Structures are given as C-alpha cells and as structure tokens.
Amino acid sequence: MSGFNIDEQTLRDLNVFNEGASSNSIYNIFKYTRTLGGRERLAELMRNPSSDINEITLRRDALAFFHQYEINLDIRNEEFDLISFYLKFDKRRSKSNIIDAVYDFTTRNSSNDYYIIKTGLKYLISFARYILKFIEEHSKTDTPEYLVTIFERITDIIQNGLLKEAILLNERHMKFFQVNKLDSAFRGIEKENMNELLQLAYELDVFENVAIVASKTGFTFPVYEESDNFKVAVNGLFHPGISNAVKNDVFIDKDQNILFLTGSNMAGKSSLLKSLGIVIYLAHLGFPVPATSVKTTIFNGLITTINLPDNTNEGLSHYYSEVKRVKEVSLKLAEKDKIFVIFDELFRGTNVKDAFDASLLIISELSFVRNSAFFISTHIVELADELARFNNISFKYLDTFFRDGKPVFTYRLAEGVSKERLGMYIVQNEGIVDIIRESCKKT
C-alpha cells in the first residue's frame, strides 16, 4: 500500500471500526461478506487507504462492475471454513504412490483425519469447478483490468495443477488412491497456490458485498482526477448513520482551500464534518461513498480532530491535548503536501479569549499552506471578521431559524456566517433558572 496517512484518532472520529453489534461504524456497514476470510480481507483493506490513484481506481472499477451487473457469488462460509481447516491440517500428508495409498486407506479410512481430508478436498474441488464457470460467465469485453488479473490467476492455478484433473472427478465418491494423490499435492507442493486461491476468492467476496452495500445505501462510486493541485466536489453529501439525512454540496480547491464553518448548537456541524471525512476516507479505498456524486483528486492523508478525548492518564488538560493535536497536524503538513484536515471547534477546552486568539493565529498561519485542504468549524463567529482578509477562505454556515419561538434546524449549508445564537435559548428552555429559584425557597 502506498503512503496515505491516517491515524487512530481519525479512525475513531469517523467511527470506522468502533465495535459492538449495534455500532453505526463504517466497518459494520460493509462487514456482511459471505465468508470469514472475506471479512478479514475487508478489515485489512479498510486499515490501509491508499494515495496511489492506479491502485484505488482498479479496485473501484472492479467494485463498480459487480454493482453494475449485480453479480452473485455463490460461495458458503461453512465450506470455505472446511477448506481452510483442511489446508492448515497438521496431520501427516498422504502419500501419492499406490502402496502408501493402500496403507493410508487401511489405517485412516474410518478415522476423523481421513474424513477431514476427504471433506476438504470435496469442497475445494467443488469450488474450483464453480469458479471456472463463474469466470467464464463474467469475462466480458468491459470486465475491469483488476478483475481480469484475478480471473487469469485463478484459472492459471487450476489449469496448471492437479485441480485440472480433480474437477473431472466426482468429488463425493473418490477412490482412496485419488484422495491420497490430491492430498499429497494440495497440502504439499501446491499448498501455497491453494491458499492463494482462497485469498482470491475472499477478494471477490469483498467485491460482491461492497457492491450490494452501494445498492442498499445509495452510496456512489467516486471519480478521480489526476492533478498536482487538489479539488474536491461533493454533491448530495450525507451521513450514513442518520436516517433521511439532509444532503449538502461541498466544494474545496487550491484557490479556496480553507472552509470556515459556523452554526448554532445542534445545527449539525460535527455530523457534516464526519460525513465529509468519511467520503475522503472511503474514496481512498476505492469504495463507494455517501453522496450523490464525488469528484476528487488524490490526497496523501486525512487527519481529523472531532472527538478529542481528555488525556487524563498523562495528566493533560483538554486544551493541552488540543494544542498537541494541532502540533501533530502541523508536523504532518511539514512532512507531506495534499493533506485533508478537519478541525471541529478549535480550542474548545479554554476560555473564550484564548480560544479566539489561538484560533485566529492558527487559521491565519494555515491560510499560507496552499497545498492542503482545511475544513474548520467553530462557535466563535467573531473570527470571521478577522479572517475575511484572506482570499483563500470560504465561509459557510448551517442554517437555523426561529419559528413560533422555537428553533428550526435545516441542516443545510448556506453561504456566509451564522447569526443565530441558541445557547441561552437552550438554557432557558430546560427551565434551569426556575429549578434554582425553587431550590432557594427551601433555604
């Protein structure tokens, strides 16, 4: 994998791998492969986004092909478990010559060991026969390059080994000498090829599953642009964990590479930031993304600061943890260009004056970093007046208005800076003052 930078804090912010059956993690959206091996391959891919446009384009095209043709892969986890168990079986391998085969038959025919061997061979042969037919059916003029490569390698493994003979047999009624001959090869000289065959099947399993997810969720496949400059155009962006989520359009490029986002409490700023981070992350896997359409250049990394925890184990205040995170981002910017950076509420862990001064200082300095993208949200709307002098900063807000004395959250991006302030409304609406006054009557 090429060096796309993403750290554990970013993976947590975007809820990529959070565990639990009820988790709304990104992994949980995609994890329904047919096989356990496919699920393990999925996790491996999701741990390794790439900045290699060729690599992720090849994968995207393979996934889109499965999606376009609604390809069904008829494999079963139980059978693949038995094949995998058989290939890892550490008992003595069968001998291929007839004398040793007779001995094995007389000593092991009724044993559990022989049953494991026969069962593993049965499912391995059945799969080999099926996958050749599958490849024949799905080898089209528009079959993507990466799939062609997989198909060719699978065919090569089968046609240039004993599986070529084995698929002509009735795998349910093999003679003992046939079992011995095949077992001697498949757990011997051809074992590496057999394991590779399984891995290729797991890759196809991932492709089918991700394609199904795209159909069910309304995710779309990203379009990549090759350019030394960066540009991201997202239409219909939505958060996959929110039912009937409002969709927004987001655009950012080298000319306006900082998007300054404001909005009242509960306006949806954090959800919007997470949605955009998820799009950038999935696009660098070659996976479909939660949007109507996405066109993007390739970035070298994604760094977010959305849910930064207090580092109590190290005795650090929240503010100092924020400062250290900004330093980490700065070091990464010095190391690489084309980094996509998301900050949600810079310096929320200190007083308003320090937060204002620190945010103004950092954003002002970031405005001179023109080779990376920055998406920054804040409650401190007064910063906008100071930042207006920078021509590479665009100002957006999530619109909120009052109707009949109550706030209405549109969750829609608008041009400009938020004017609504809901902090006092929320305090008053909870009746806190009345509760305090009632408690005073008791004293």
Question: Your description of this structure?
Answer:
α14 (352-366) links the parallel β7 and β8 (373-377). 49% of the residues lie in helices and 14% in strands. It has 443 residues and is an alpha/beta fold. The model has no long low-confidence stretch (mean pLDDT 90). The protein has helices spanning 8-13, 26-30, 36-46, 53-69, 77-88, 98-108, 112-138, 145-159, 163-166, 176-186, 191-217, 269-283, 318-335, 352-366, 383-387, 423-429, 432-440, and strands spanning 223-225, 231-237, 248-253, 258-262, 293-297, 301-305, 339-344, 373-377, 393-403, 406-415.
- Residue ranges: pLDDT <50 for 5 or more in a row? none
The average pLDDT is 90
Read across the widest sheet, the strand sequence of neighbours is 6-7-8-4-9-10
Query: How large is the share of residues in beta strands?
Result: 5-15%
Number of strands: 10
Task: Describe the structure using short key phrases.
6-stranded mixed β-sheet; 17 helices; 4-stranded mixed β-sheet; 443 residues; elongated; alpha/beta
What is this entry, summarized?
With 443 residues, the chain is α/β, with parallel strands linked by helices.
Draw up the topology in text:
Elements: H1 8-13, H2 26-30, H3 36-46, H4 53-69, H5 77-88, H6 98-108, H7 112-138, H8 145-159, H9 163-166, H10 176-186, H11 191-217, E1 223-225, E2 231-237, E3 248-253, E4 258-262, H12 269-283, E5 293-297, E6 301-305, H13 318-335, E7 339-344, H14 352-366, E8 373-377, H15 383-387, E9 393-403, E10 406-415, H16 423-429, H17 432-440
Parallel strand pairs: 1-5, 4-8, 4-9, 6-7, 7-8
Antiparallel strand pairs: 2-3, 2-5, 9-10
Helix pairs in contact: 3-11, 4-11, 5-7, 6-10, 7-8, 8-11
